[in-house]
Amino acid sequence: MSEDTFFHPVSGFELPRFAGVPTFMRLPHVPPGHPRFSEVQIGLVGVPWDSGTTNRPGPRHGPRQLRDASTMIRAQHPVTGLRPFEAARCADLGDVGPNPADIQDSLERIAAFYSDLRTAGIRPMTAGGDHLTSLPILRALAKDEPLGMVHFDSHTDLYRSYFGGTMYTHGTPFRRAVEEGLLDPSRVVMIGIRGTAYDTEDRDFAKSVGIRVIPIEEFHDRGIADVMAEAREIAGTGETYVSYDIDFVDPTFAPGTGTPEVGGPNSFQALQVCRELAGLNIVGADMVEVSPPFDASGGTAFLGVSIMFELLCAMLA
Amino acid sequence: MSEDTFFHPVSGFELPRFAGVPTFMRLPHVPPGHPRFSEVQIGLVGVPWDSGTTNRPGPRHGPRQLRDASTMIRAQHPVTGLRPFEAARCADLGDVGPNPADIQDSLERIAAFYSDLRTAGIRPMTAGGDHLTSLPILRALAKDEPLGMVHFDSHTDLYRSYFGGTMYTHGTPFRRAVEEGLLDPSRVVMIGIRGTAYDTEDRDFAKSVGIRVIPIEEFHDRGIADVMAEAREIAGTGETYVSYDIDFVDPTFAPGTGTPEVGGPNSFQALQVCRELAGLNIVGADMVEVSPPFDASGGTAFLGVSIMFELLCAMLA
Amino acid sequence: MSEDTFFHPVSGFELPRFAGVPTFMRLPHVPPGHPRFSEVQIGLVGVPWDSGTTNRPGPRHGPRQLRDASTMIRAQHPVTGLRPFEAARCADLGDVGPNPADIQDSLERIAAFYSDLRTAGIRPMTAGGDHLTSLPILRALAKDEPLGMVHFDSHTDLYRSYFGGTMYTHGTPFRRAVEEGLLDPSRVVMIGIRGTAYDTEDRDFAKSVGIRVIPIEEFHDRGIADVMAEAREIAGTGETYVSYDIDFVDPTFAPGTGTPEVGGPNSFQALQVCRELAGLNIVGADMVEVSPPFDASGGTAFLGVSIMFELLCAMLA
Amino acid sequence: MSEDTFFHPVSGFELPRFAGVPTFMRLPHVPPGHPRFSEVQIGLVGVPWDSGTTNRPGPRHGPRQLRDASTMIRAQHPVTGLRPFEAARCADLGDVGPNPADIQDSLERIAAFYSDLRTAGIRPMTAGGDHLTSLPILRALAKDEPLGMVHFDSHTDLYRSYFGGTMYTHGTPFRRAVEEGLLDPSRVVMIGIRGTAYDTEDRDFAKSVGIRVIPIEEFHDRGIADVMAEAREIAGTGETYVSYDIDFVDPTFAPGTGTPEVGGPNSFQALQVCRELAGLNIVGADMVEVSPPFDASGGTAFLGVSIMFELLCAMLA
Amino acid sequence: MSEDTFFHPVSGFELPRFAGVPTFMRLPHVPPGHPRFSEVQIGLVGVPWDSGTTNRPGPRHGPRQLRDASTMIRAQHPVTGLRPFEAARCADLGDVGPNPADIQDSLERIAAFYSDLRTAGIRPMTAGGDHLTSLPILRALAKDEPLGMVHFDSHTDLYRSYFGGTMYTHGTPFRRAVEEGLLDPSRVVMIGIRGTAYDTEDRDFAKSVGIRVIPIEEFHDRGIADVMAEAREIAGTGETYVSYDIDFVDPTFAPGTGTPEVGGPNSFQALQVCRELAGLNIVGADMVEVSPPFDASGGTAFLGVSIMFELLCAMLA
Amino acid sequence: MSEDTFFHPVSGFELPRFAGVPTFMRLPHVPPGHPRFSEVQIGLVGVPWDSGTTNRPGPRHGPRQLRDASTMIRAQHPVTGLRPFEAARCADLGDVGPNPADIQDSLERIAAFYSDLRTAGIRPMTAGGDHLTSLPILRALAKDEPLGMVHFDSHTDLYRSYFGGTMYTHGTPFRRAVEEGLLDPSRVVMIGIRGTAYDTEDRDFAKSVGIRVIPIEEFHDRGIADVMAEAREIAGTGETYVSYDIDFVDPTFAPGTGTPEVGGPNSFQALQVCRELAGLNIVGADMVEVSPPFDASGGTAFLGVSIMFELLCAMLA
Fold it and tell me: D153 among the known binding-site residues?
C-alpha cells in the first residue's frame, strides 16, 4: 500500500536546498481553506509583525527569512532519531496578515487566526514577529484555563507600560497575559534574564504573582540540566506554552534582533534547553524577535529554525 | 569687536570630522529650554519615527545616521558661495520624542513641537522619520492658511487608506493634508513619481483637486531646468513647504529606504533640483524616509544631508 | 457575475508586502500537476543553477531572491497603464530542479521542463540561473525553426570553449545555439557589449555568421530609441527570444552578478530598453546571472524583477 | 525637596533609545568650560585616534560608534543592583581633539586634557582610540607615583619598537610607560595574552621587570575567579589603572578590531572579569581598539559599552 | 656564516601586515618549476574549486581569502614556542588550476599535482576548495597503502550519491575513498558530527566498515583531551591524513561556509583539537569549505589560517 | 621561433580568474632585485599607506584589494583593440614598504623607491594609498624639471595646512608640490572639483599660481570631449603626470573612499576621461584613495583597476 507523503518535506537529495518556493521546513503550504487543512496536527505559522517594538524594528521580516533558512532543515533529529514529519502531520499554514499601522486591529486578527486553529485542533508553532505576538496567541489558546509557560528570554517582558501609559508593546505582553488570566503565574518560569535594568518594577511584579525568574548568572552557574529540571517541575503536567525570544541567545550567535543583551547562552546551549522540554504538555510554541535587517546573512534565522525544529520535536516527544 | 561664533559649526580644520558628539552639521545643540533657543532662525530637528510605514521600517533610525553623516558637511556652498551658517542662526534642536507604539500620540507630540517652533519664529528643517511625519508638521505650519508644496518623491502619498480603512500611514499624509485644508492643491507639485501601481486612485484624486504630478519619464524628458521652472510657477510667491522623500532618488544612489522604485534621478540631479528652489518662500522643509538598516554604510544618509544642505541654502537664497 | 481572481496577485493593500510565502510577483504557485496548470498563459519559472559559471558562482540562488524582491511589484505599468495579470493568466510554475553536480543531466532536465511548457502552450518568463540556462530553453522553444533573439548583455557569450575544450559554460551558450540551429543569426542582436577582451574570437564568429553586435559606446552615442529601432528591425516579425543578462546594467546598479563590466546603462535605461520591445513576437524571455551572494541587500534582484515586469508587459504589448 | 537629575541619563521609558543626540550612556554632555564641569566625579571621554596603529586602522571612529551603542545601556547593574549614575556624578566630557597626522602633537593634546581632569578631581573612563592612547593618559594620571595596572588584552603591547626604530605605536605603550616610570611593573598584570608571536622580546622584557603575564591557556584552565584573585593581589591597594583592549575578547564576539587573535573569552566572561575588579583603587579605565570599519553592525561597540558599564560599576564598588 | 632566510616569512616588524603580494603565511611563492622547488619540505597549496558543492557554492574563492588572512600569522607557536618555518622549509606552491565546468577533469588535475608533490617528497597542506577536494589528494597520497584519517567536520561526507545517482559531490568523498581503498576505515575517526539528518545511510555505512563517528554531543560531554586521546589511538602510528572542514566549528565562529550546522565548538576548541594531534604521522592535511561569499569580513578565513598554522605545527611536532 | 611570454598576463581561459596568487592584472611579480627587473618598461606599484588621511583611513589596504580585483582584467582594450601587455613589458613590482607610524620616514621610503624606477627607466603606474602618496612620487619623477599634471578629483588637495600647521596630509600634496617646484602650475588642470567647502583658500592659491580648476558643474555642462580637449591643451607636450583620485567618481559608483562628495561622474564617464588622455606625454600615473574598509564588496576596486587599465593604455597610445 502506497504511503501518503503529502505532509513530508521535500528532500535535499531530490531538490537542492536552494531550489523551490520556500515554505517552513519545505513542508506543504496548507493555508486555511486548503482541502487538507483539517488534517494538519501541527501548524507552522508566520506572524510578520513588529508594531509593539519600542526600540529597533524588523521582526515583521522574520517569517520570510526563517522560511528561507528553514530549507536547510532535514527530516531527522540528530540525537533522538525522531522524524517529526512522520510522527505528526505538519504544514506551513502561511502568515497571519497584520495591519502594520494599527496595533489593536492586528491583535484581533492574530487572535482570530489562532482561535480557528484551536477549534481545528491544530497545535501552533509560530515564527514571529516581536514578542507582543505572544499575547493574542495566548488569548486564543488559554480560552478555557490559564496556561503554564516556559519562557526563554533576556528580558521578562513584564513591564506595566511604556512612554507614559502605552500598554501594548513587546515589553509588556506577559504582564497583560497575567492580568487577563491567560497565564498561571505559579506555572511560569523565565530563563536567561540579564542586562542592565531601568529599575526592578518587572521583577517586583514577578515576585508578587509568583513567577520564577532565573537570571543568566544562575543559569551559567547551575547548568542546563539542573535549571531545566526545575523548569519542568514549575510547568508541571498542565497545558504549557513555550515562548522563545531569540535574544535569549547571546547576540554574537543571534545578532539579528532588536534589543540584544550580551552574555547569553551559546548556540549549543540554545538547542539543549529545548531538548530538556521533552515530556511537557506543550500546546503551542513560538520563536520571536528574529529581525533580519540586523543580520542580513541569515545566521540568526538559521539558528532560529534549528531551535524551531527542536521545539517541534519537544512537542512530539 | 569679537564675533559671536556660537552658531557656527565646528571646522574640520580644527576638530577632525570623525571627532565630537555628532549634531546636525556640527551646529550647537540648542533644544527647547536652552538659553539661546529664542535666537535660532532655522532649526534642524530630528523626528525618529516610522509608525506609518506599511512596508519595511527603519526611518526611526534616520536622524541619528543623518547627524553622523552630517559631520562631513562644510560651511560654504560650492556654486553660489553662500555660507548659510553665517547667513542665519542655525542650530540642532534635538529630536522630537515619539511614541513608537501609538500613532495618534506621536502625531500630537510632533505637532506640538512644531507649533512651538512656529510661535518662536523658527523655520524648521526636519530629518525624518517616514513620510507620515510631514502631516503633523503641516498641521503646525499651516495654522493660518494652506501652504503650497514642492514634493520630491517616487510616490504621491495621496492614497485614501490602507489595510481596509487605516487612514494614517506614510502613503496617505498628503491626502489628509488636503482634506484638512493644510495644503492648497493648486499650489502643490509632485515630482519624480514612478514605479508599478496598484491602481490610479491616488492620481485620480490629484487630478480632481488640481495637484500637478510630474512622472519620472516627463522629468527625464524635459530636464531639470524646465521642470523646476514649472514647479516654481506652481508654488508661486505664497508660503511653501518642501518635502523631499529620499526615494525620489534612484535606489542605487539611495538604497537606505523602505519602498524603493528603480529608475530615478542620480545624485547630481538630486542636488540640482534643490538649487532650482531658490527664490521660493520656504517656511519649512523635510528629508524623510532615510532608513539606516537598509544602508548601514551611510551613503544614503550622506546624500541625504548633502540635500539638506542644499535645501538650507534654498531657504536662504 | 463574480470574477475569477485566482490568477491575480495579492495586493499590498490587503496583505503587507513583507507577508506571505513569496512567489513571483505574488502570483499563485501553479507547478506542473496543479489542477489549473493548463490554464496558464505565461509561466514564471525559476532555474536555480550556475554550473556553467567560469568565474564567481551564485546565480543558483537567484530565483529565491528574485521571488522575495518581486513582492514589491504591483499590478499596473506606470506608463502604459497595462495590467498584465489581467491581460493574461500568469502563474509561478516553481523551479526546475537542477543537478548541481552534473551539467549534462541539468541541461536535459531543463530542456524537458520547457518542452512540456511549449506543449502546454505556456510562454515562459525565466529567472536564472547563469547564462548557460538559456541554451536548454532555446532547445525546447526552437524545435520547429530557429528563433530571432534580442540579447542584452555586456558579453557576447559566443566563445567556442574554455579551459582547453570545455564546451558548455555560461560563456558559450549562443555559440552552441547557433551551431545547433536554434537561433537564426541574421535575426540576432547583442546590445551593450563591453569590457576588456581576451581576444576577438567571439566577435569574429558573430561577424562570420551575421550576428549584429552593438557595443556600449555605440549604445551611449546613438541613444536607446535609435538602437532599439534597429534591434526591432533585426528581430523582425518572426518568433523571437529575449535574453537579459543582468550584467548588461552597470555593476553599480546591479552588483549582484559574477562577471561585472563597468560602464553600462543605468537603471532607468535598463527599463527603457524593455519598453522598446513592444510589438515583437516574443516566445519567451529570461533574466539571468542575478547572483545574491554578491548583493545580499537585494537591490540587484529588485532591479531584476522590475525588468521582468517590463519584459512581461512587452510580451503582452 | 526636588532632586537634581542633571547627571541622570535619559530613560528609555521616556525617550526611545534610538532618539536624541547620542552621548555616552545618555549622560549630559559636559565639556570643559561647561558650568557644571567642576561637579563631575567620573568623566567619560572619547579619544578618536589611531595613529599608533601598525596594522588595520579604524579606532579613530570608535568613540562615535560607542556613544551610539551606549544608548542601549540602562541605569542599574543586573547583579549588584548598583545604580552608578546615582552613586556618582557622571558625564560625557566629549572628545579630545587629536591631530591625525602628527603623533607627538596628539600625545601632548591627550596628556594635557587628562592632566586637567586630574587637577579637577575627575576620574576618567576613556573610549579609545588605539592602545597608544593609554600612554598619554598614564602620563597624566601617574604624575606623583607609578600606578598598578590590570590589563586585558591578547597582546602585551610591550615591544621596544617597530619598523626599524619607531618608538610610539599601539604595540609599545606599556614599554614606554615602564621606562618612563608611569607603571610599577610589580603591580602590573596582563591577562588573556595569545596568538602567534614574532619572538619573545616582549615577554622577556615583562619577565625582566616583573610584569605578570597570564596567557589565555592559563586563563581558560584556572577559571576567572582564580585568575582575578591573583590579579587583585598583584594590583594591591595602591592606585590602579584598568586598560581593556577589546581584542582581549574572542574576535567572533568582537570582530570590530584591527589585530584580532582567535581563541579568546566569550562575552559573558568579558563582563565577569570586570565584576572581579571590585575593591581595587581604580583611578581610571579605558576601552580601546574598537574599530567600527570592521564591524559596521555595531555589535562590537555594544559589547564595548557593556564592558564600560561594568568598569564604571567597578570604579564605584 | 650568513643564514639562508629564503624560506622564512616576511616579518610584520619589517613590512606591515597589509603590504605585499599575499602568499600563504608570507612564505615565498615557489610553484612547480621554481629553482628551489625541490628543497621544499612542506608545501602550502590552494585548490580553488567547488564543483562538488550541492548547496551554496563559494569555496573556489577560499584560497585567495585564506592567503590574504594568513598575512596576520607570525613565526612562533604561542604555547610550544615552535617556529615551524625554521623547523622545516615551507613554501606557497600556488594553486592547482581547476576546470570549474568539468568535475572529472578537475579531479585528474588535482590528483596529478599532488602525485608530483609526493614524488618530490613534499608534504602538502591544502587550502580548499570544497570537501570533494580531499578525494584526489587521497588518491595521490595513498598510492602505496590506505591511510588513517582524523576528520573534523559536522558531516560524515560518507553518503553514497546525490540527486539520483551522482557519485562525486562534497557529500561523498570519503565513501569513494573507502571504496577505492584509499582509507583504512579502522584507522579513521570523524569528530564533531551533528545537525538534522536525511536518514542514517551514512552512519550505517560508517558502522559497517568500522569508521568511528564521534557526534558533537559526545565531544562536548567528554571534552577534548579524552576525545583526542581516542582519536590518536585510532589513527595509530601509520601514515595519517588530517582533513579539517571549517564547518566543524560553530557557524557563529565560522559563518563563511556553505552548509553550516549550529552547536559546534568555539574558536579556542578549534585550535585545541589540532594541538592534540602532535605525535601522529601526518602525511598531509587540508582546511576545506571556507566560502568567502558568506563571510566577506574574512573572520572565517582568519580562523581557518590560524587552524592551518596549528596543523602545520602538528605536522612538525 | 618561440615568443617570450614572461611579461604576458595569465589568461582566464587557462586559469580561472579566481585562482592563483593575485598580482596586478595577473602580470609577473618582478620586485627590485628580480633578474628581469631591468627589462620592465611600465611598473605597477602598490603604496599601501594612509598616514596623511585627515578623515576616514583605509587606503593602506588599497593595493591588496586592487590586486585582487585586477584579476578580472583581460588583455585587450574594448574600443581601440590595443593589447598593452604586448605593446610594452609590464610587471607588478610589488609594494613600497611604508612606516605607518612615521610620515617623514614613509615619504623618504617612497621617494627612494621611485627614484630607483626613474633611474631604471621604468614608468610607474601606482596604486595608492591616500593622496599624499603622489608627493614623494613627484619628488622622484620631477627631479629635472617641473611636470604638468592632469588631476581627476573632487578636491583640489591644495590646502596650506591642517590642524594648526600640519603640512603633510592628503589635503596638501599639490600645494607642497608647487612650492617645491615639482609641478608647473600653468600646465596643471584639476577636474571634477565639488562639494561643500571650508573656504576658498585652496582655490585662491590655484588662481594665484595659474592652476586651472574645472568644477563638476562645468564638467557636466560642457561634456567630456570639450573639457578634455582643454585639459590636453593645458598639459601640452611636456612631461605630464596623471593623478586619479577615486573620489572623482560619484560615491555611489565608488563608495570605497574616505572623503566622498556626491554628484560626480558615473562609471562610463570615469573611463571616458582616460581615453581622452591619449597623446599626452605621460611619465607616470596613479589611482589613489581606494579604501577597502568602506567597500568590502570590492566594486570600487574593480572600477579602480578598470581605470588603471585605461590609464595604462593612455600611456601607450
Answer: yes
Judged by CB atoms closer than 8 Å, whether chains meet at C163 and E102 is answered as: yes
Residue of E nearest to C109 (CA): E163
**E-B interface (Cβ pairs under 8 Å ≥ 3):** no
What is the phi/psi pair of residue C131, to 5°?
A: -75, -15
Q: What pairing do the DSSP bridges indicate for beta strands B123-127 and B281-288?
A: parallel
Q: Cα F267 from chain centroid?
A: 16
Q: Tell which residue, F50, F83, F78, has the closest CA to residue F64.
A: F50
- Beta E281-288 vs E239-245: how paired, if at all? parallel
Do the Cβ atoms of A240 and A280 come closer than 8 Å? yes
Residue F281 has a CB neighbour count (10 Å cut-off) of: 13
Per-residue pLDDT tens, chain D, 317 aa: give them: 457 999 999 999 999 999 999 999 999 999 999 999 999 999 999 999 999 999 999 999 999 999 999 999 999 999 999 999 999 999 999 999 999 999 999 999 999 999 999 999 999 999 999 999 999 999 999 989 999 999 999 999 999 999 999 999 999 999 999 999 999 999 999 999 999 999 999 999 999 999 999 999 999 999 999 999 999 999 999 999 999 999 999 999 999 999 999 999 999 999 999 999 999 999 999 999 999 999 989 999 999 999 999 999 999 99
For residue D118, give the C-alpha cell: 586630574
Cβ neighbours for D41, distance < 8 A, ≥ 6 positions apart? D88, D89, D90, D121, D122, D123
F114 φ/ψ angles, rounded to the nearest 5 degrees: -75, -30
Please list, in sequence order, all residues whose beta carbon lies within 8 angstroms of the beta carbon of residue D164, skipping any fewer than 6 positions away: E14, F99
Distance, C-alpha C100 to centroid of its chain = 20
Rounded Cα distance, A160 and C271, in Å? 52
In the CATH hierarchy, which fold is given to the domain comprising B40-315?
Arginase; Chain A (3.40.800)
CB pair distance less than 8 Å for E303 and D198:
no
Q: What angle do CA C44, C50, C52 make, to 5 degrees?
A: 120
Sheet holding D147-152, edge to edge: D90-95, D42-46, D123-127, D281-288, D239-245, D147-152, D183-193, D212-215
Grid cell listed for C213: 553586435
The residue written with cell numbers 587583585 in the block is D232
What's the DSSP call for residue F192?
E
Instruction: Judge contact between D52 and D251, C-beta under 8 A.
Output: no
Inspect the interface and report whether the beta carbons of F198 and B267 lie closer than 8 Å: no
| Contact yes or no for B198/C12 (Cβ under 8 A) | yes
Give the distance from residue B89's alpha carbon to the nearest chain A alpha carbon, in angstroms: 33
Q: For the range E81-87, what are the long-range contacts, defined as Cβ-Cβ under 8 Å and sequence gap of 24 or more?
A: E81/D200, E82/E313, E82/E316, E82/E317, E84/E309, E84/E312, E84/E313, E84/E316, E85/E7, E85/E8, E85/E9, E85/E25, E85/E27, E86/E8, E87/E316
Whether ipTM tops 0.85, in short, is yes
C-alpha cell at E215: 557526534
D166:F56 CB<8 A: no
CA nearest to C53 within chain F: F16
H/E element, F284: strand F281-288
Which residues in F have their CB inside 8 Å of a CB on E? Answer: 14-16, 18-23, 29, 46, 48, 60-61, 63-64, 67-68, 92, 94-95, 97-98, 100, 296-297
- Cβ neighbours of residue A207 closer than 8 Å, sequence gap 6 or more: none
As a three-state string, the secondary structure of E289-313 is CCCHHHCCCCHHHHHHHHHHHHHHH
**How is E167-223 classified by DSSP, letter by letter?**
--STTSHHHHHHHTT-EEEEEEEEEEE-S-BS-SHHHHHHHHHT-EEEEHHHHHHH-
- What size, in residues, is chain A? 317
Closest CA to E251 of A253, F185, B219: A253
Work out whether strand D239-245 and strand C281-288 pair parallel, antiparallel, or are unpaired.
Answer: unpaired
E170 CB neighbour count, 10 Å cutoff: 30
